[in-house]
Amino acid sequence: MPTIPTAFADVTASDSTLRRFLHGLPGVDAVGLEARAAGLGTRSIKTTAKAYAIDLAISMIDLTTLEGADTPGKVRALAAKAVHPDPTDRTTPSTAAVCVYPDMAAIAAKALKGSGVKVASVATAFPAGRAALDVKLADTRDAVAAGADEIDMVIDRGAFLSGRYLKVFEEIRAVKEAAGPARLKVIFETGELSTYDNIRRASWLGMIAGADFIKTSTGKVAVNATPANTLLMLEAVRDYRAQTGIQVGVKPAGGIRTSKDAIKFLVLVNETVGADWLHNHWFRFGASSLLNDLLLQRQKLATGRYSGPDYVTVD
Q1: pLDDT score recorded for residue 263
Q2: Is 152 annotated as catalytic?
Q3: Which of 120, 125, 265, 286 has a 20 to 30 Å separation from 249 between CA atoms?
Q4: 86, 152, 212, 293: which one is catalytic?
Q5: How far apart are CA 77 and CA 70, in angstroms?
Q6: One digit per residue, pLDDT tens: the chain, 315 residues?
Q7: 214 near 222, Cβ under 8 Å?
Q8: How far apart are the first and last CA of the chain?
Q9: CA–CA distance, 95 with 93 (Å, rounded to integer)
Q10: Using the 8-state DSSP alphabet, how is residue 65 labeled?
Q11: Could you count the other beta carbons within 10 Å of the beta carbon of residue 62?
């Protein structure tokens, strides 16, 4: 099993001690949180800084296809786009990863071999997470065996919302062990957690259990990544590193579609946790359509002309 940080060994001894710790975290000032997120979103980023931010955002994308109609051909095409997002301009950075269902992980791994682009795979009965633990662990092991470098797991929201925190904690630890060398992203589905206090508690629970990343959402519900819930998670990883020395990544996912939106999130990162997180090893965007808008804006900066949607492929 993953090692629990020494500072939290007693906290995770029982359900009651874990509940006492999580409910003892400071309450979230919702008005203050949303005001700060909105204020940071008004920052103006121009010219050279904007070009840098666009390339950085491209390099942080987990280019994602998670549909029942996914085919091997679609996954191979997505992998090709991840490696060379703009075939007419080889200075365009590759994306961070391609994210697929476990049964498509081997196809993605073959297509991406030697490129440096990671294979991320959702597991643990994504997106609902409604399966027995042995099924979730088998799902995880299968994805890693097929070539996944990263596993995106969903927590049991029903267990979390009913206060069974130790069950959620132990499940994350078990998936982390099953993932072996693969990095683990823990998805909270923030839109279903209802309150900012719950998002803070889930963030700390995930980090203590061994998450390499904490992730907002699956992209499959009405409310996904927002500046406010991402800011709250950034504050959590900042405070966790200050307390333990362990750095954890953050991945907002779902609903981030434009360059303007992506740059707002990068400002949140820079102003909240700083340059240490401004790298795709520690910050990702879970997205499908975002890349196209970034490519269009990049091309406009380079040529002064806006090419329109026909310039990019529709995935």
Answers
A1: 96
A2: yes
A3: 125
A4: 152
A5: 11
A6: 777 888 898 999 999 999 999 999 999 999 999 999 999 988 888 778 999 999 999 999 999 999 999 999 999 999 999 999 999 999 999 999 999 999 999 999 999 999 999 999 999 999 999 999 999 999 999 999 999 999 999 999 999 999 999 999 999 999 999 999 999 999 999 999 999 999 999 999 999 999 999 999 999 998 899 999 999 999 999 999 999 999 999 999 999 999 999 999 999 999 999 999 999 999 999 988 999 999 999 999 988 776 666 556 666
A7: no
A8: 39
A9: 7
A10: -
A11: 25
167 is catalytic: no
Q: Which residue of the set 81, 176, 215, 264 is catalytic?
A: 215
Opening angle at CA 183, ends 167 and 58, nearest 5: 125
Query: Could you tell me if 240 and 248 are in contact, meaning their C-beta atoms sit under 8 angstroms apart?
Result: yes
pLDDT at 1: 75
**Cβ–Cβ contacts within 10 Å for residue 160, how many?**
22
Active-site residue identified among 118, 176, 251, 264 = 251
Residue 28 DSSP symbol = P
Q: Apex CA 237: angle with CA 233 and CA 243, to 5°?
A: 140
d(CA 288, CA 224): 14
62's tokens: 């987990």
Would you call 251 a catalytic residue per the annotation? yes
* Entry pTM: 0.95
Distance, CA of 265 to CA of 272 (rounded, Å): 10
CB distance 207 to 240 below 8 Å: yes
Interatomic CA distance for residues 279 and 283, integer angstroms: 6
Is the CB of residue 74 less than 8 Å from the CB of residue 314? no
SS (H, E, C) 67-108: CCCCCHHHHHHHHHHHHCCCCCCCCCCCCCEEEECHHHHHHH
- Name residue, tokens 């030697």: 114
Residue for token digits 């440096």?
Answer: 116
